[in-house]
Amino acid sequence: MCSECEKTFISATCLKLHERIHTGEKPFKCSHCDKRFSQSANLRTHERIHTGEKLHTCDQCGKSYRQKAYLTEHMRVHTGEKPFVCDQCGKSFSQSSTFKHHKNIHTGEKPHTCNQCGKSFRLKGYLTAHMRVHTGKKPFSCDQCGKSFSHAAYLKDHMNIHTGEKLHACDQCGKTFLWASVLKNHLRVHTKEKPHSCNLCGKRFSQLPHLKVHQKIHTGVRDYMCFECEKTFTSAGHLKQHQRIHTGEKPYKCSHCDKKFSHFATLKTHEMIHSGEKPYKCSHCDKRFSSSANVKKHERIHTGEKPYVCDQCGKSFLQNGQLKSHMNIHTGEKPYKCSHCDKRFSMSGHLKIHERIHTGEKPYHCTACGKRFNNSSGLRTHTKRHHSK
């Protein structure tokens, strides 16, 4: 019997081994390093780290292990045995260590704390990965281009760029993606999920970057400036698109005709002319449209909504373009010049009507007598005067 804790043993040898727990005695020293052990069996197991010896081999797949316990755990891969069952949720595990980590989910325990910022983690591996934020260490390098990453998962995703492999497929439409995160964002197209909400106006977004750009509308922050015209923008993407006005760049070419576009979205809308596709249906009538913007504009005819309000006179408009043209009345600006004479106009529609004087074009004709007019108001006046009962 142990004189310290009164635990009993079947032999003097077992008692002697046990007593080393209390005395701290570790008589067995590793011949390769300074580590010491209380039992010779533990020393032998440890020395296999240095020798690389793996005595315990799986008879199913031939994989070898230093310790029998590791082989026992591995065998569960083949047998499917999961002996460790959570009494909170019923989930089972093949390894005791994985089970132990899982229990922290229920207890909320985060035993691994960062000594730099105090942030805590459930798993030691999470803390190890987090510490690289402070150290800047990036131990995972791409053997193709040399780029380094702080996480093995980031390297794995990066490698898809070189292989071109798109492992992540949408189960709704079959579209494939290089990264799981991009697939996750794409799925919101189908689910209509918008988890990111603006805390100032309540508007919701499917992606966090879109919310961040939107919030700059409220703050007024416009970090990106065009060096050609000094116009400012809330995002680098918006600035890049704007700069194509100055460069004339149109990188998106239609696969059906030679037409080119400066915006990818404009190309997609254009291609529906060729396909005849009109996926956006008015919720008030059966009319269909090739773009969501066009259906939104159309629906205002039914709702009577005029969201664009002039801050000078209070007049409201269906479309932003109409408000911009209207503002020229207040500023006196006449940006639209006739290509045939020096006359200028505040609205493009007025210029179009005027140029018909030069071209002789008369697109509006009376269905009763065939007389033609260069504007719709002239036709209406004629119809009322000569053909109304």
Automatic annotation (TrEMBL):
InterPro entries: Znf_C2H2-type (IPR050758), Znf_C2H2_sf (IPR036236), Znf_C2H2_type (IPR013087). The keyword Transport does not apply. Gene3D superfamilies: Classic Zinc Finger. Residues 1-27, 28-55, 56-83, 84-111, 112-139, 140-167, 168-195, 196-223, 224-251, 252-279, 280-307, 308-335, 336-363, 364-389 form the C2H2-type domain. Keywords: Metal-binding, Repeat, Zinc, Zinc-finger. It comes from the Eukaryota. PANTHER family: ZNF44 PROTEIN (PTHR23234). This is Zinc finger protein 271.
